[in-house]
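May I ask you to review the protein record following this short note?
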Amino acid sequence: MASTPEENDRNSKLRSVSVDLNNDASLMIDIPDALCERDKVKFTVHTKTTLDAFQKPEFSVPRQHEDFIWLHDTLDETEEYAGLIIPPSPPKPDFESPREKMHKLGEGEATMTKEEYTKMKQELEAEYLAVFKKTVQVHEVFLQRLSSHPVLSKDRNFQIFLEYDQDLSVRRKNAKEMFGGFFKNMVKTADEVIISGVKEVDDFFDQEKTFLLDYYNKIRDATTKAEKMTRAHKNVADDYIHFSATLDSLSADESTALKMYLLKLAELFEKLRKVEGRVASDEDLKLTELLRYYMRDIQAAKDLLYRRARALADYESSNKALDKARLKSKEVQQAEEHQQLCCQKFEKLSESGKRELISFKGRRVVAFRKNLIEMAELEIKHAKSSVSLLQSCIDMLKTN
Protein backbone atom coordinates (compact mmCIF):
# COMPACT_ATOMS: atom_id res chain seq x y z
CA MET A 1 0.00 0.00 0.00
CA ALA A 2 1.98 3.01 -1.26
CA SER A 3 0.95 6.62 -0.80
CA THR A 4 -0.28 8.51 -3.86
CA PRO A 5 0.84 11.99 -4.95
CA GLU A 6 -2.49 13.43 -3.78
CA GLU A 7 -2.04 11.82 -0.38
CA ASN A 8 1.51 13.14 -0.17
CA ASP A 9 0.23 16.63 -0.92
CA ARG A 10 -2.31 16.47 1.90
CA ASN A 11 0.36 14.85 4.04
CA SER A 12 2.58 17.92 3.62
CA LYS A 13 -0.27 20.22 4.64
CA LEU A 14 -1.37 18.22 7.68
CA ARG A 15 1.85 17.07 9.27
CA SER A 16 1.17 15.06 12.43
CA VAL A 17 4.11 16.45 14.38
CA SER A 18 5.21 20.01 13.75
CA VAL A 19 8.51 20.81 15.42
CA ASP A 20 10.74 23.82 14.89
CA LEU A 21 13.44 21.99 12.95
CA ASN A 22 15.20 25.01 11.42
CA ASN A 23 16.44 22.80 8.61
CA ASP A 24 19.73 23.80 7.08
CA ALA A 25 19.51 23.72 3.28
CA SER A 26 22.87 21.91 3.24
CA LEU A 27 21.18 18.70 4.47
CA MET A 28 17.50 18.13 3.59
CA ILE A 29 15.82 14.81 4.39
CA ASP A 30 12.31 13.55 3.69
CA ILE A 31 10.42 10.28 3.22
CA PRO A 32 8.52 10.72 -0.07
CA ASP A 33 7.27 7.14 -0.28
CA ALA A 34 6.60 4.09 1.88
CA LEU A 35 5.26 0.61 1.28
CA CYS A 36 3.26 -1.39 3.83
CA GLU A 37 3.77 -5.18 3.73
CA ARG A 38 1.76 -6.90 6.47
CA ASP A 39 3.51 -5.93 9.72
CA LYS A 40 6.42 -4.15 8.03
CA VAL A 41 6.76 -0.71 6.50
CA LYS A 42 9.54 -0.03 4.02
CA PHE A 43 10.49 3.64 3.93
CA THR A 44 12.25 5.43 1.10
CA VAL A 45 14.60 7.94 2.74
CA HIS A 46 15.51 10.75 0.35
CA THR A 47 18.47 13.07 1.04
CA LYS A 48 19.59 16.24 -0.73
CA THR A 49 22.86 17.78 0.43
CA THR A 50 25.74 20.09 -0.42
CA LEU A 51 28.04 18.67 2.27
CA ASP A 52 31.37 17.16 1.22
CA ALA A 53 30.96 14.31 3.72
CA PHE A 54 28.56 12.63 1.28
CA GLN A 55 29.55 11.09 -2.06
CA LYS A 56 26.54 12.37 -4.02
CA PRO A 57 24.41 15.54 -3.79
CA GLU A 58 21.13 13.58 -3.90
CA PHE A 59 20.26 9.96 -3.15
CA SER A 60 17.55 7.64 -1.78
CA VAL A 61 17.85 4.46 0.29
CA PRO A 62 15.33 1.85 1.56
CA ARG A 63 14.97 1.54 5.33
CA GLN A 64 12.82 -0.38 7.82
CA HIS A 65 11.68 0.52 11.34
CA GLU A 66 14.45 -1.58 12.93
CA ASP A 67 17.03 0.55 11.12
CA PHE A 68 15.65 3.69 12.80
CA ILE A 69 15.78 1.99 16.21
CA TRP A 70 19.39 0.91 15.57
CA LEU A 71 20.34 4.50 14.72
CA HIS A 72 18.64 5.89 17.84
CA ASP A 73 20.20 3.31 20.17
CA THR A 74 23.64 3.88 18.64
CA LEU A 75 23.40 7.62 19.29
CA ASP A 76 21.93 7.10 22.76
CA GLU A 77 24.78 4.78 23.78
CA THR A 78 27.55 7.08 22.49
CA GLU A 79 29.36 8.57 25.49
CA GLU A 80 30.29 11.67 23.50
CA TYR A 81 26.58 12.59 23.19
CA ALA A 82 25.75 12.20 26.90
CA GLY A 83 25.16 15.96 27.20
CA LEU A 84 22.68 16.08 24.30
CA ILE A 85 18.94 15.47 24.05
CA ILE A 86 18.77 12.48 21.71
CA PRO A 87 15.59 12.81 19.59
CA PRO A 88 13.07 10.12 20.65
CA SER A 89 12.94 7.02 18.48
CA PRO A 90 9.80 6.66 16.34
CA PRO A 91 7.24 4.22 17.79
CA LYS A 92 6.76 0.84 16.16
CA PRO A 93 4.16 0.83 13.35
CA ASP A 94 0.86 -0.49 14.74
CA PHE A 95 -1.88 -1.36 12.28
CA GLU A 96 -3.53 -3.91 14.57
CA SER A 97 -6.43 -1.69 15.70
CA PRO A 98 -7.79 -0.76 12.21
CA ARG A 99 -7.27 -4.37 11.04
CA GLU A 100 -9.20 -5.72 14.00
CA LYS A 101 -12.03 -3.27 13.36
CA MET A 102 -12.08 -4.29 9.69
CA HIS A 103 -12.30 -7.94 10.73
CA LYS A 104 -15.22 -7.23 13.08
CA LEU A 105 -16.95 -5.24 10.36
CA GLY A 106 -16.68 -8.24 8.04
CA GLU A 107 -18.23 -10.48 10.68
CA GLY A 108 -21.14 -8.06 11.18
CA GLU A 109 -21.81 -7.43 7.49
CA ALA A 110 -24.97 -9.56 7.55
CA THR A 111 -26.57 -7.26 10.17
CA MET A 112 -26.08 -4.06 8.11
CA THR A 113 -27.53 -2.59 4.98
CA LYS A 114 -25.25 -2.49 1.94
CA GLU A 115 -24.96 1.30 2.10
CA GLU A 116 -24.22 1.24 5.84
CA TYR A 117 -21.50 -1.39 5.38
CA THR A 118 -19.90 0.55 2.50
CA LYS A 119 -19.72 3.76 4.53
CA MET A 120 -18.31 2.00 7.61
CA LYS A 121 -15.69 0.33 5.41
CA GLN A 122 -14.72 3.70 3.94
CA GLU A 123 -14.28 5.10 7.46
CA LEU A 124 -12.01 2.22 8.48
CA GLU A 125 -9.95 2.51 5.31
CA ALA A 126 -9.51 6.23 6.03
CA GLU A 127 -8.44 5.37 9.60
CA TYR A 128 -5.90 2.84 8.30
CA LEU A 129 -4.52 5.44 5.88
CA ALA A 130 -4.24 8.00 8.71
CA VAL A 131 -2.24 5.53 10.83
CA PHE A 132 -0.01 4.82 7.83
CA LYS A 133 0.61 8.54 7.25
CA LYS A 134 1.42 9.18 10.91
CA THR A 135 3.86 6.26 10.87
CA VAL A 136 5.71 7.79 7.92
CA GLN A 137 5.69 11.25 9.47
CA VAL A 138 7.11 10.32 12.90
CA HIS A 139 9.98 8.49 11.19
CA GLU A 140 10.60 11.51 8.98
CA VAL A 141 10.57 13.91 11.94
CA PHE A 142 13.15 11.76 13.76
CA LEU A 143 15.57 12.10 10.83
CA GLN A 144 14.88 15.81 10.41
CA ARG A 145 15.58 16.41 14.10
CA LEU A 146 18.97 14.74 13.63
CA SER A 147 19.77 16.62 10.42
CA SER A 148 19.00 19.98 12.09
CA HIS A 149 21.24 19.27 15.11
CA PRO A 150 24.73 20.84 14.85
CA VAL A 151 26.45 17.79 16.42
CA LEU A 152 24.26 14.76 15.66
CA SER A 153 24.02 15.68 11.96
CA LYS A 154 27.75 14.99 11.65
CA ASP A 155 27.58 11.53 13.25
CA ARG A 156 29.17 8.85 11.07
CA ASN A 157 26.44 6.26 11.76
CA PHE A 158 23.82 8.81 10.75
CA GLN A 159 25.64 9.38 7.47
CA ILE A 160 25.83 5.62 6.87
CA PHE A 161 22.10 5.34 7.55
CA LEU A 162 21.37 8.02 4.94
CA GLU A 163 23.87 7.03 2.27
CA TYR A 164 24.48 3.26 2.32
CA ASP A 165 22.28 2.03 -0.52
CA GLN A 166 22.10 -1.62 0.61
CA ASP A 167 20.08 -3.26 3.34
CA LEU A 168 21.62 -2.41 6.72
CA SER A 169 20.72 -5.96 7.87
CA VAL A 170 19.87 -4.71 11.34
CA ARG A 171 18.44 -7.67 13.20
CA ARG A 172 15.89 -7.45 15.97
CA LYS A 173 17.13 -7.87 19.52
CA ASN A 174 17.07 -11.44 20.74
CA ALA A 175 15.53 -12.51 24.07
CA LYS A 176 18.85 -12.16 25.91
CA GLU A 177 19.41 -8.62 24.63
CA MET A 178 15.81 -7.62 25.41
CA PHE A 179 16.21 -8.95 28.95
CA GLY A 180 19.50 -7.06 29.18
CA GLY A 181 17.73 -3.85 28.18
CA PHE A 182 14.97 -4.50 30.70
CA PHE A 183 17.56 -5.13 33.43
CA LYS A 184 19.41 -1.95 32.43
CA ASN A 185 16.20 0.08 32.82
CA MET A 186 15.63 -1.45 36.25
CA VAL A 187 19.17 -0.51 37.30
CA LYS A 188 18.64 3.00 35.94
CA THR A 189 15.39 3.38 37.89
CA ALA A 190 17.11 2.26 41.11
CA ASP A 191 20.06 4.53 40.34
CA GLU A 192 17.73 7.52 39.88
CA VAL A 193 16.42 6.95 43.41
CA ILE A 194 19.97 6.82 44.77
CA ILE A 195 21.25 9.95 43.00
CA SER A 196 18.07 11.87 43.84
CA GLY A 197 19.66 12.36 47.26
CA VAL A 198 22.63 14.19 45.71
CA LYS A 199 22.27 17.94 46.30
CA GLU A 200 22.03 19.94 43.07
CA VAL A 201 24.72 22.61 42.71
CA ASP A 202 23.08 24.60 39.88
CA ASP A 203 19.68 26.30 40.30
CA PHE A 204 19.05 26.12 36.54
CA PHE A 205 19.10 22.31 36.49
CA ASP A 206 17.19 22.07 39.76
CA GLN A 207 14.38 24.18 38.30
CA GLU A 208 14.46 22.25 35.00
CA LYS A 209 14.14 18.92 36.80
CA THR A 210 11.14 20.12 38.82
CA PHE A 211 9.53 21.65 35.74
CA LEU A 212 10.02 18.63 33.47
CA LEU A 213 8.62 16.17 36.05
CA ASP A 214 5.49 18.31 36.48
CA TYR A 215 5.24 19.11 32.77
CA TYR A 216 5.50 15.45 31.77
CA ASN A 217 2.55 14.56 34.03
CA LYS A 218 0.46 17.40 32.60
CA ILE A 219 1.28 16.44 28.98
CA ARG A 220 0.43 12.80 29.76
CA ASP A 221 -2.97 13.81 31.21
CA ALA A 222 -3.62 16.14 28.26
CA THR A 223 -2.79 13.30 25.85
CA THR A 224 -5.34 11.01 27.51
CA LYS A 225 -8.04 13.70 27.32
CA ALA A 226 -7.17 14.56 23.70
CA GLU A 227 -7.46 10.88 22.74
CA LYS A 228 -10.91 10.72 24.38
CA MET A 229 -11.99 13.87 22.53
CA THR A 230 -10.80 12.48 19.19
CA ARG A 231 -12.50 9.14 19.87
CA ALA A 232 -15.76 10.95 20.74
CA HIS A 233 -15.76 12.78 17.39
CA LYS A 234 -15.11 9.49 15.57
CA ASN A 235 -18.03 7.90 17.44
CA VAL A 236 -20.31 10.78 16.41
CA ALA A 237 -19.23 10.30 12.77
CA ASP A 238 -20.05 6.58 13.06
CA ASP A 239 -23.47 7.39 14.54
CA TYR A 240 -24.20 9.71 11.62
CA ILE A 241 -23.66 6.72 9.30
CA HIS A 242 -26.43 4.81 11.08
CA PHE A 243 -28.75 7.85 11.05
CA SER A 244 -28.19 8.39 7.33
CA ALA A 245 -28.66 4.70 6.48
CA THR A 246 -31.83 4.42 8.59
CA LEU A 247 -33.41 7.53 7.04
CA ASP A 248 -32.48 6.30 3.58
CA SER A 249 -34.04 2.93 4.34
CA LEU A 250 -37.25 4.57 5.61
CA SER A 251 -37.53 6.70 2.47
CA ALA A 252 -37.56 3.53 0.32
CA ASP A 253 -40.87 2.54 1.93
CA GLU A 254 -42.44 5.95 1.38
CA SER A 255 -44.22 7.12 -1.75
CA THR A 256 -45.60 10.34 -0.28
CA ALA A 257 -44.07 13.82 0.04
CA LEU A 258 -42.35 12.56 3.21
CA LYS A 259 -39.93 10.60 1.02
CA MET A 260 -38.18 13.78 -0.14
CA TYR A 261 -37.74 15.02 3.44
CA LEU A 262 -36.27 11.71 4.56
CA LEU A 263 -33.83 11.69 1.64
CA LYS A 264 -32.74 15.26 2.35
CA LEU A 265 -32.14 14.44 6.04
CA ALA A 266 -30.20 11.31 5.07
CA GLU A 267 -28.07 13.45 2.76
CA LEU A 268 -27.53 16.01 5.57
CA PHE A 269 -26.26 13.37 8.03
CA GLU A 270 -23.95 11.94 5.37
CA LYS A 271 -22.41 15.38 4.80
CA LEU A 272 -22.19 15.99 8.56
CA ARG A 273 -20.44 12.61 8.90
CA LYS A 274 -17.70 13.72 6.55
CA VAL A 275 -17.24 17.01 8.42
CA GLU A 276 -17.13 15.24 11.79
CA GLY A 277 -14.63 12.74 10.41
CA ARG A 278 -12.37 15.60 9.30
CA VAL A 279 -12.68 17.21 12.75
CA ALA A 280 -11.53 13.96 14.39
CA SER A 281 -8.67 13.56 11.91
CA ASP A 282 -7.44 17.13 12.31
CA GLU A 283 -7.59 17.00 16.11
CA ASP A 284 -5.62 13.78 16.06
CA LEU A 285 -3.00 15.19 13.67
CA LYS A 286 -2.66 18.67 15.14
CA LEU A 287 -3.07 18.01 18.87
CA THR A 288 -3.07 14.39 20.03
CA GLU A 289 -0.07 13.36 17.94
CA LEU A 290 1.87 16.45 19.01
CA LEU A 291 1.22 15.66 22.68
CA ARG A 292 2.33 12.04 22.16
CA TYR A 293 5.52 13.24 20.50
CA TYR A 294 6.40 15.62 23.31
CA MET A 295 5.79 12.96 25.92
CA ARG A 296 8.65 11.06 24.28
CA ASP A 297 10.73 14.22 23.82
CA ILE A 298 10.33 15.23 27.48
CA GLN A 299 11.51 11.75 28.47
CA ALA A 300 14.61 12.29 26.32
CA ALA A 301 15.24 15.58 28.17
CA LYS A 302 14.80 13.79 31.51
CA ASP A 303 17.35 11.19 30.37
CA LEU A 304 19.83 14.02 29.82
CA LEU A 305 19.22 15.26 33.37
CA TYR A 306 19.75 11.74 34.67
CA ARG A 307 23.11 11.41 32.90
CA ARG A 308 24.23 14.75 34.32
CA ALA A 309 23.06 13.81 37.83
CA ARG A 310 24.98 10.54 37.49
CA ALA A 311 28.11 12.52 36.54
CA LEU A 312 27.58 14.82 39.56
CA ALA A 313 27.31 11.82 41.88
CA ASP A 314 30.50 10.36 40.38
CA TYR A 315 32.27 13.70 40.84
CA GLU A 316 31.30 13.91 44.51
CA SER A 317 32.37 10.30 45.05
CA SER A 318 35.75 11.08 43.45
CA ASN A 319 36.16 14.04 45.83
CA LYS A 320 35.57 11.77 48.81
CA ALA A 321 37.97 9.15 47.40
CA LEU A 322 40.62 11.85 46.93
CA ASP A 323 40.21 13.03 50.54
CA LYS A 324 40.66 9.45 51.78
CA ALA A 325 43.72 8.94 49.57
CA ARG A 326 45.32 12.11 50.94
CA LEU A 327 44.62 11.08 54.53
CA LYS A 328 46.29 7.72 53.94
CA SER A 329 48.95 9.21 51.61
CA LYS A 330 48.26 6.34 49.27
CA GLU A 331 47.50 6.40 45.49
CA VAL A 332 46.98 10.17 45.64
CA GLN A 333 47.98 10.80 42.02
CA GLN A 334 45.51 8.22 40.66
CA ALA A 335 42.76 9.71 42.82
CA GLU A 336 43.57 13.23 41.61
CA GLU A 337 43.51 12.15 37.97
CA HIS A 338 40.19 10.37 38.45
CA GLN A 339 38.76 13.40 40.23
CA GLN A 340 39.85 15.69 37.38
CA LEU A 341 38.28 13.40 34.77
CA CYS A 342 34.99 13.31 36.72
CA CYS A 343 35.08 17.09 37.08
CA GLN A 344 35.70 17.63 33.36
CA LYS A 345 32.90 15.23 32.40
CA PHE A 346 30.44 16.90 34.78
CA GLU A 347 31.30 20.42 33.57
CA LYS A 348 31.04 19.34 29.93
CA LEU A 349 27.61 17.74 30.50
CA SER A 350 26.43 20.84 32.39
CA GLU A 351 27.53 23.19 29.62
CA SER A 352 26.03 21.25 26.72
CA GLY A 353 22.98 20.22 28.76
CA LYS A 354 22.10 23.84 29.50
CA ARG A 355 22.25 24.73 25.79
CA GLU A 356 20.12 21.71 24.88
CA LEU A 357 17.41 22.45 27.47
CA ILE A 358 17.18 26.11 26.47
CA SER A 359 16.87 25.07 22.81
CA PHE A 360 14.28 22.45 23.77
CA LYS A 361 12.10 25.09 25.44
CA GLY A 362 12.19 27.38 22.41
CA ARG A 363 11.43 24.54 20.00
CA ARG A 364 8.57 23.32 22.18
CA VAL A 365 6.90 26.73 22.45
CA VAL A 366 7.07 27.32 18.69
CA ALA A 367 5.66 23.84 17.93
CA PHE A 368 2.68 24.15 20.28
CA ARG A 369 1.90 27.68 19.17
CA LYS A 370 1.95 26.68 15.48
CA ASN A 371 -0.17 23.54 15.93
CA LEU A 372 -2.75 25.13 18.23
CA ILE A 373 -3.26 28.06 15.83
CA GLU A 374 -3.66 25.70 12.88
CA MET A 375 -6.06 23.47 14.82
CA ALA A 376 -8.17 26.46 15.91
CA GLU A 377 -8.41 27.64 12.29
CA LEU A 378 -9.51 24.16 11.17
CA GLU A 379 -12.07 23.91 14.02
CA ILE A 380 -13.60 27.24 12.96
CA LYS A 381 -13.67 26.12 9.34
CA HIS A 382 -15.44 22.84 10.18
CA ALA A 383 -17.89 24.57 12.54
CA LYS A 384 -18.84 26.99 9.79
CA SER A 385 -19.34 24.06 7.39
CA SER A 386 -21.65 22.30 9.86
CA VAL A 387 -23.70 25.46 10.48
CA SER A 388 -23.96 26.07 6.73
CA LEU A 389 -25.17 22.51 6.09
CA LEU A 390 -27.78 22.71 8.86
CA GLN A 391 -28.99 26.15 7.72
CA SER A 392 -29.28 25.00 4.10
CA CYS A 393 -31.29 21.96 5.14
CA ILE A 394 -33.63 24.04 7.34
CA ASP A 395 -34.16 26.58 4.56
CA MET A 396 -34.95 23.81 2.10
CA LEU A 397 -37.46 22.19 4.45
CA LYS A 398 -39.17 25.58 5.10
CA THR A 399 -39.35 26.33 1.36
CA ASN A 400 -41.00 22.99 0.60
